[in-house]
Amino acid sequence: QTVQAAHAPRGAAPDRTRLHCPPRDTCAVAMEGARCGALPASLGEKDLRRSHPRFSAENWPRNLSLFTQFEALAAEAGLEPAQLALAWVLAQGEHVHAIPGTTSLDHLRENHSASDIVVDGAVMEKAGRLINQRTVSGHRYPEVMRHTIDTEEFD
């Protein structure tokens, strides 16, 4: 059985993954890296994310603040945000696999190097506290799509 937890650490579900994915029985797949969410102003007119609550006028300023803080944390650690995000995901357990996407060879190299990066535990802890299912504002999906998704509700 595979549980997908997308947007790691932006909206990742580390606690749920640990509680419900024993290493021998399940595998958690974290999709999408930190670069996948472009700024709303730069989204094309037909970009599907324009209808997603996390990019709404109400939620985006709070989420952008989180991401700005995450970028600063990554810079302090000498990393790109995507590298810190992927290192954080990979540190959640042997049963967690990251599938970052990119169209850039440079970003592919950065993403690949995340598996070899050793990040200070305090930085990883800050990253997890900063961006998680309780701090990100707005649901990941628009209302019309939610009935088809069962992996994005957290208690």
List keywords for this structure.
155 residues; 37% helix; 3-stranded parallel sheet; mainly alpha; disordered N terminus
Overall description:
- With 155 residues, the chain is mainly α.
- 37% of the residues lie in helices and 8% in strands.
- The protein contains 6 helices and 3 strands, in the order βαβααβααα.
- The chain has a 3-stranded parallel beta sheet with strand order 1-2-3.
- Strand 1 (2-4), helix 1 (14-20) and strand 2 (27-31) form a beta-alpha-beta unit.
- It starts with a strand and ends in a 9-residue tail after the last helix.
Roughly what fraction of the amino acids lie in strands?
Answer: 5-15%
Which oligomerization state do the chains in this entry correspond to?
A: single chain
Could you tell me the number of beta strands? 3
What general form does the structure show? globular
* Alpha plus pi helix count: 6
Radius of gyration equals 15 Å
Termini Cα gap: 21 Å
The profile of the biggest β sheet is: 3 strands, parallel
Helix content: 25-40%
Which residues sit in consecutive blocks of at least 5 with pLDDT less than 50?
Answer: 1-20, 31-37
Which sequence of SSEs, written as H and E, runs from N to C? EHEHHEHHH
Biggest β-sheet: strands ordered side by side in the sheet? 1-2-3
Broad structural category: mainly alpha
